[in-house]
Amino acid sequence: MKQRIFMYLFVFAALLVLFQYVNSKRIFEDIDKKLVTSETQLKIYKDSVAVLQNDILEVSHFNLYRNEDAISYFENKGYEIDELIPFIKDELYKLNEVKGEHPLIPYGSSEGRKMMINTIKMLNHKWIIADFSDGEFWGEILLTYYITEDKQLKFTLVEHFLYPFY
Question: Which of residues 113 and 128 earns the better pLDDT score?
Answer without folding.
Answer: 128
